Amino acid sequence: MKLLIYTPVFAPNVGGIETIVLTLTRGLTDLVTCEGVAEFDVKLITQTAAGKFKDEELPFQIVRRPSLKQLWSAIRASDVVHIACPAVVPLVLSLLARKPVVVEHHGFQTICPTGQLLMEPDGIPCPGHFMAGRHLKCMGCRSTKDWKHSYMLWLSTFFRRFLCRHVAANIMPTEWLLGTLNLKNAITIPHGIEMPSPVISTRHASGPPLIVFQGRLVTTKGLDVLLRALAILHAEHCPFELVVIGDGPERASLVNLTHSLQISDSVRFAGRLAAVEMESTLADARIVAMPSLAGEVFGLVLAENMSRGLAVVVSDIGALVEVAGNAGLTFHKGDSQDLAQKLRELLSDPELATRLGKLARQRMFDVYSPNGMVNKHADVYRSLIR
User: Fold this and answer.
1) Which of 58, 171, 257, 318 has the most CB atoms around it within 10 Å of its CB?
2) pLDDT digits 0-9 by tens, 136-152
3) Sign of torsion, CA 332 335 337 342?
4) Are residues 79 and 105 in the same domain?
5) Is residue 241 part of a domain?
């Protein structure tokens, strides 16, 4: 079967879409028929430049930044087209070519003009204005003063939703997202998480317990909520150390917040870390906190840290609650007091943290395996050809 996978972003970029698409594409190229022949002839098309990435080391063909003619030719030569995110141009071309189209949703682009379900510039979680028909609210939601840009985003949301109503399958990583997007021909296929090898901690046992935040430093990730929760614990003389892994436009304001909360001595902004250093830091952690306010359709950072056997505390937004299951603690979104209480439980009870970590790793093994993800996608493609 000739399978075309289109993804707007790919390696060497680092992110959730890039990670899942690479895992899926690698897995599909490994599938063979009972005669020992490769079942899928996979071609991947992306808008990301190669940079120093060595495409030739991957077991599938990659076409980067194709012309419209190249994209059209690749679509016509394919049996099935898989599109990561509802990208308009490949969607239109694939439907015009009458190809079976699968759209995998990694965001909210079919129900929110910004794709984040967050009201800008205030950073307030959106209650769903677009789907409720409150379109003036959508037009007023923007991070710039460019009305034309806001209008085009709003208009494109209608078009994306229209196109996704006419594809063969809409794939969601969580049941929560399936219900939220409310599209036809929708199925849930959980993301597959590679299980990392355990890394031995080198942290001295007498040091304060380590809490880790990992993610972009933007409003939707809710790091300010975590910092305020830690300020509550600091006032109670509860020992801790927080390491912030990641960078973003709000770093300076968040650093200033640690000073105003008088917890700067217990917080380290590590920035982006190389893989080895990040694994070493996470091996020393007792807790990973994910205080997101919005924008999460799965929570790849959550799943990856659960696969490391770490205790997790997450906000009670739908996708994170679904992925964490009974293997993590949840708190009310945006509520620093509630988050402080959950952190207090884990900091005061190391055995609870260890027990939750073991449950988390087992849950990833049972529910979120890469093989399961690959095989379920393959079943979808086979059904479309039949």
Assistant:
1) 171
2) 888 878 666 678 888 88
3) positive
4) yes
5) yes
